[in-house]
Amino acid sequence: MELRCKRAYENASAEDGFRVLIDRLWPRGVSKEKAAIDLWAKGIAPSTELRHDWHAAPDADFEVNAERYRAQLAAESAPALQELVEELKGRPVVTLVYGLRNTEHNHAVVLAEVLRPLLG
User: A Pfam family in this protein (predicted)?
Assistant: First the structure.
């Protein structure tokens, strides 16, 4: 399985495979048609507090926020994570879609890191 990350503001393409929006809020200004989302996994998104912290200083506190998100995935979002794993198993290509501007320091990168060993 190939797991990719892509901003919601980039054009969807056939190569994206199964597209999963992993934000709690729908990206501003992006139509449902343009987004071409197959699954909106709100339950896997960072908590409101963590989302605010990530937006405030995405680079400066990345490791701190990443660790907080991993802890959230292990505890609060564990059922949502398991549901997502079951939904994604067997799909050849999955793209995690997110709204943050920073393409290197965001929750999609952390979620992909958590999902890879679970999806084999």
Answer: DUF488-N3i
Q: Which residue has the tokens 């969807």?
A: 12
Pairing, β 18-21 against β 39-40: parallel
The domain limits of the chain are 2-119
Q: CA–CA separation, 20 vs 36, rounded Å?
A: 9
The confidence score (pLDDT) of residue 14 equals 95
Other C-beta atoms closer than 10 Å to the C-beta of 27 total 18
d(CA 60, CA 75): 25
For residue range 59-101, list pLDDT tens digits in order. Answer: 667 888 899 999 999 998 899 999 999 999 999 999 999 998 8
Query: Among candidates 51, 59, 3, 56, which has minimal Cα distance to 27?
Result: 51
pLDDT of residue 59: 62
Name the token pair of 48: 């409101």
Work out the burial of residue 85: count CB atoms within 10 Å of its CB; fewer than 13 is exposed, 13-18 middle, 19 or more buried: middle
